[in-house]
Design goal:
Layout lengths: L2 H28 L4 H8 L3 E8 L3 E3 L8 E9 L6 E8 L7 E2 L6 E2 L1 H4 L11 E4 L2 H6 L5 E3 L2 H13 L4 E2 L3 H16 L7 H5 L1
Parallel strand pairs: 7-8, 7-9
Antiparallel strand pairs: 1-2, 1-3, 3-4, 4-5, 6-8
Length: 196
């Protein structure tokens, strides 16, 4: 590769990064996201191309992949520091929340497991979408993987925590998510134990 070709490639890469930065900044302004307020809870809010996969997953595109423009943020573990997963959604559908690795039950794990969240019986406020969570400066939580979120919410309620919904319809949605988890449990007695 010649020096001129290398400079052209670097310029193209720099232009692509600049476009992504401008798109990310525009998205944050359009949706009322305070970048500095959310950075410690979700990392950078990045508008990039993603590939939508089955099972509420996404990936970063390779050449030739069918891509869509999406938003990506970090999901931070309960320690408030360690990255757990990347969470993303298509730009056109913030309700279609997906993960890169399938490891993040909710956004806001640190708040979920912090006893101070429940001081004077305050609930953990659960937002409808990851975008709504960002717009609330990452206060509370947002469901990412419903089955894992239900287990997390059961653990929180076992510890005496309260789960707060946005409205009655959202409360029913969260309750049904919990019921679906509990309904899957089946206890059996092996035939060898019945005969004894």
């Amino acid at each position: 590769m010649s020096a001129l070709a290398l400079l052209d490639a670097l310029d193209a890469l720099h232009d692509d990064q600049r476009r992504q930065w401008v798109a990310s900044a525009d998205y944050q302004i359009e949706h009322g996201i305070a970048g500095r307020a959310v950075h410690g809870f979700a990392g950078l809010v990045s508008v990039v191309d993603i590939v939508l996969l089955a099972g509420a997953r996404f990936d970063l595109p390779n050449e030739g992949d069918d891509r869509t423009t999406g938003v990506i943020i970090k999901a931070i573990d309960a320690d408030g520091v360690s990255p757990l997963d990347l969470v993303g959604w298509p730009l056109a559908d913030p309700g279609d929340v997906r993960t890169l690795l399938g490891r993040a039950p909710i956004l806001g794990l640190e708040a979920a497991f912090n006893p101070a969240t429940y001081y004077l019986e305050h609930p953990l406020i659960v937002h409808r979408t990851a975008l709504a969570w960002l717009q609330a400066n990452c206060e509370g939580a947002a469901v990412v993987i419903p089955k894992l979120a239900a287990r997390t919410f059961l653990e929180i309620t076992t510890m005496g925590g309260l789960i707060g919904a946005q409205d009655p319809a959202h409360a029913c949605e969260l309750q049904n998510m919990l019921y679906a988890l509990v309904d899957q449990v089946e206890i059996v007695i092996p035939k060898t134990q019945v005969a004894a």
